Predict the structure.
Amino acid sequence: MDGPQLPGATVDREDRIILHVDMDCFYASCERLREPRLKGTPVVVGMGYEAGETHGAVATASYEAREHGVESAQAISQALEALPRATEVGDDYDGVVGHYRPVDLDFYKEVAADVKAVLHEHAETVREVSIDEAYLDVTDRTSWQEVDGGDRTIAEGYGRHIKQQIARTVGVPASVGVAPNMSTAKIASDFDKPDGLTVVPPREVEAFLDPLPVDELHGVGPVTARELRSMDIETAGELAAADRNELVDRFGQRGRELYNRARGNDDREVTPTGRPKSLSRESAFTEPTADTEAKRENVRALAADVAARAQSREAMYRTIAIKVVTPPFDVNTRASSLSGPVDDPELVEDVALDLLAEFDENRVRKLGVRVSNLVFDTQDQARLDGFETAATDGSTTDAPEADAPADVERVDHGGRITDWIDDGDSEASLDRRRRGQSSLGEFE
Ligand code: TTP
Ligand code: MG
């Protein structure tokens, strides 16, 4: 939209204002909060690390430490080679030293809670994705209206204000991205780290994404990036200009998703934390199998798992669905909707097995079970926009969630170590599950 926009006015979807906040070298920034002398110095926070020891892995490093090659998931022993410990060098050492600290998650959670409090003050809807990351829908609070002769938007001022509030009241730096959709906002927050503020108004989305390497798009890991490169697709612009059918042939449903993301099309709504639209679990066979009993056994286990999770979250569901991936990557979803919400593990199993019967003859590489149209209590009915049709062939039609994992991408994430906290459904936890158990994950 080019014209002025009043805050609170009805907006087109592409005129939404989504803000993504990602704290800078978060654990290290927390350490600086209680030890201000560490400001401006190389700080390394180690998981499984103890003072004076060499074991453990780097959870995060301050940007000053990163300049010396220290990075997340590196062994502490390796980090120490690049950056000796401040306490261990002699008086005559004139090189750069690092300050090493063990992870203190309880303290970081307290700081994160203070940050989240600021975020909740500034948006009706906040989706907390991990300890240091959140999406805010601030459409009603600000506007894409241009100011300063068109140099800036009011939304930019709002983004800056939120950053400053975090810095003033909590004392830790954040990077903020503001854009009309979630995936662009996330790329924007990462664009100018640390202490960054990148604003991408609706009409600039295409130009902003165009030169970015494909790896910077959400859901593109090293494997996908390599495959895209083999198709001569290096940048988001090239992906956006690619033949969509060719991408779908190659990557299945994900091809369509990648194509859309590269064009800045992302309709996902910011859904508040703790209220998932669906709960699901999926599991891959090592080798595709046509063995009916193996498939049924798998679905029984997935159904039990999903039903138990729904119970633990006190969620009832109105729709039960399965996903069946047949070689090479054909994603079939089948769903059955009930007349009212239930909490009934047996029913989940029965319905899932019924839906599976259609695929008795098929070789299957992956199976999933999902419950959706969730109702958390009698007062609070979840949005009824999950996929609900009885047969959605070859494509999932539901709106993906904030943290919707890309299919096939599960094992395509390297380098992360595992001990961080989140709300259980976050990208971080999905990444972790992908790494630890490449055959078990969630599907949305
Ligand atoms: P990130 O936001 O990925 O990293 P960061 O905040 O340290 O740095 P950046 O400025 O690039 O955003 O992760 C947030 C915190 O999660 C991080 O401070 C430490 C923790 N973490 C781990 O414990 N293990 C990991 O492998 C990573 C990547 C992060
Ligand atoms: Mg961060």
In short: Confidence is low (pLDDT under 50) at residues 1-10, 378-444. The two ends are 31 Å apart (CA to CA).
